[in-house]
Specification:
The complex is a heterodimer.
Chain A lengths: L3 H9 L2 H6 L4 E2 L6 H10 L2 E4 L2 E4 L11 H20 L8 H11 L3 H11 L5 E5 L8 H7 L2 E6 L2 H11 L19 E5 L5 H8 L2 E7 L5 H7 E9 L2 H13 L7 H7 L3 E5 L2 E7 L5
Parallel strand pairs in A: 4-5, 4-7, 5-6, 7-8
Antiparallel strand pairs in A: 1-3, 2-3, 8-10, 9-10
Helix pairs in contact in A: 1-4, 3-11, 4-5, 4-11, 5-8, 6-7
Chain B lengths: L1 E8 L6 H8 L13 E7 L2 E7 L6 H10 L4 E9 L3 H15 L6 E9 L1 H7 L6 H7 L4 E3 L7 H9 L3
Parallel strand pairs in B: 1-3, 1-4, 4-5, 5-6
Antiparallel strand pairs in B: 2-3
Helix pairs in contact in B: 2-3
The chains are: A alpha/beta, B alpha/beta.
Chain lengths: 282, 161
């Protein structure tokens, strides 16, 4: 459902990885451990106590794809600086912006399968955090949803705004009908600013969160049902969290796991979809 | 990376979304398309935005979409069902609705007849030459979005973008 090999190839073919892959044995400082842990999860290193040794992963740095090139760029300029020093990216260069945008296409099959399999037709839908899964037009075309996309940085969604401008925009939510235009809107605000969003658009029928650190209790108050999507693929989750943190975006927290324990869970390929119903408005 | 946009236009049930899903590597049976949507794919060194247009059930919606068309695409794929003559004639109607706006909405146009497998089974094959000439499409592709291998499905893109 996701091009995992392309993503892993992207990480392993990045310049920082080239250096790490030459290591026979290392005992990193505490601060650098998250980086070494990621490479252990990939199998490129083996964790032995507080040391890391060369792993058994057979690395074939073969044919690249647009997604692997994008991941390589993102790993070098966003994930690696965050993992090694906690540094966050300020202004996005056009190349980074494009790489982020290209990376989101890795989740297109997930978006289609989720929308087709799990969402009923029609309704106002909040996407709480666009990056990395990038839920947007599939919700409109497949499930006839009116969509509000909430993201914390405008430069993250700029290319998606540009792309969506290709399709006719309906002036107001359409409900359930078959239509020649779609209603969509972007809101740039912290994911915690849900009350303001609800005040502007009214209550939502559905909220979709994918791999982000949204407040599910709060979301449950502004939406009738909340879908939380999480990958079970540990290296991909670690990469995404490093990207989110490196970009200064809300990443999933431990608190979130507690809330998800009481949710209904459904598997969708390598993803878990948690469904919280009945907590919000009716 | 070069970017290009493609739109697939035709009336309901001709297989537009099935075709797009197959190009994306998905073999799932799509629901009826309710609103316009965009899908992204990478074809060699190009990033393609695929605009999929609703039309299932209602010719009117496709016609309205053609009237509301606000953009220019690199390739327009007019799609019809090889077993349904009405879906072919509707192409001419949609084309007129687009041209009524007075500007050319695309750089290149092709006609695609879908459901070739079904047409062969039924022995009912609606040829599109006349409509292709009317809309200025230099080439017609006869495909089965459900059953053809991906190389065949890529041809309208590879040969025209």
């Amino acid at each position: 459902m996701i091009p995992r090999d392309d993503i892993i190839l992207g990480i392993l073919s990045s310049p920082p990885a080239a250096l790490l892959l030459e290591i026979e044995e290392a005992k990193p400082m505490q601060r650098a451990r998250p980086l070494f842990d990621l490479f252990s999860e990939l199998g490129a290193l083996q964790k032995k106590g507080d040391k890391y040794k060369r792993g058994r992963l057979e690395i074939n740095l073969g044919e690249h794809s647009p997604i692997s090139d994008a991941v390589s760029e993102l790993f070098q300029h966003v994930a690696f600086p965050y993992l090694i020093s906690g540094r966050k990216v300020g202004r996005l260069t056009p190349d980074l912006q494009r790489a982020l945008y290209t990376y989101t296409s890795a989740y297109q099959a997930l978006r289609i399968a989720f929308t087709q399999d799990l969402l009923r037709y029609g309704g106002l839908t909040l996407v709480a955090g666009w990056f990395p899964c990038a839920f947007s037009s599939e919700l409109m075309s497949i499930a006839g949803r009116d969509v509000v996309i909430l993201e914390e940085r405008e430069d993250i969604v700029a290319l998606e705004m540009d792309r969506l401008s290709l399709i006719p925009l309906a002036p107001a939510p359409l409900g359930q009908e078959l239509a020649a235009a779609s209603f969509y809107a972007f809101e740039i605000a912290p994911l915690t600013n849900l009350d303001e969003v609800a005040e502007k658009y009214g209550k939502f029928n559905t909220a979709v969160v994918c791999g982000r650190g949204a407040d599910l209790d709060k979301l449950g108050k502004v939406a009738e049902e909340v879908y939380y999507i999480a990958t079970r693929d540990r290296p991909i989750a670690l990469l995404n969290n490093a990207l989110l943190n490196g970009l200064g975006l809300a990443a999933p927290s431990e608190e979130l796991e507690k809330t998800l324990r009481k949710a209904q869970r459904q598997e969708l390929g390598p993803f878990d979809v948690y469904i919280l119903r009945g907590t919000g408005p009716t | 990376m070069k970017r290009a946009s493609v739109a697939v236009l035709g009336v309901g049930g001709v297989g537009k979304t099935t075709y797009v899903f197959r190009l994306l590597g998905l073999s799932i049976k799509p629901r009826a398309t309710l609103r316009p949507g965009i899908y992204r794919m990478y074809l060699s060194d190009r990033e393609l935005d695929f605009i999929d247009v609703p039309g299932q059930v209602a010719v009117e919606v496709a016609r309205n979409f053609a009237k509301a068309w606000t953009f220019y695409v690199d390739l327009m794929i007019y799609m019809y069902d090889l077993t349904d003559q009405a879906s072919l004639y509707a192409i001419a109607e949609l084309h007129s609705a687009l041209l009524d706006r007075g500007i050319s909405p695309y750089r290149k146009v092709v006609l695609v007849g879908n459901k070739r497998d079904l047409a062969e089974e039924l022995g009912l094959f609606v040829e599109g030459d006349e409509i292709a000439a009317a809309v200025g499409a230099p080439k017609i592709y006869y495909i089965s979005a459900l059953k053809d291998n991906i190389e065949i499905l890529y041809k309208p893109l590879e040969e025209n973008i």
